[in-house]
Description:
The chain is an all-alpha fold. The chain contains five helices and no strands. It has helices spanning about 5-25, 25-30, 35-60, 65-80, 85-120. The longest helix has about 35 residues, at about 85-120. It starts with a helix and ends with a helix.
Amino acid sequence: xxxxxxxxxxxxxxxxxxxxxxxxxxxxxxxxxxxxxxxxxxxxxxxxxxxxxxxxxxxxxxxxxxxxxxxxxxxxxxxxxxxxxxxxxxxxxxxxxxxxxxxxxxxxxxxxxxxxxxxxxx
Length: 122
């Protein structure tokens, strides 16, 4: 698995690339209904990358991650979505909720797997 620093750097780089491409193609993303939904999806990727960065930053500084990180990352993504089209805000929120659900499932699975490996060693 990647370390905290590597994960932070990767998430910042991906956030920057996705945000830059979203702003460059803002007109195209707002041109049709399907492209507007795609704009909301790209903004939800911004949510994923910013949440990864914030979580790793909190972990490296010894703070506990919580819902505050999720809300802050969502606000960042919704503001980015609002620069494209107002419908992107809604689709971003829906895609972000789905991503958050899936991340929670994966996290629970990995945590359970790590605990079972730890109990096998003892």
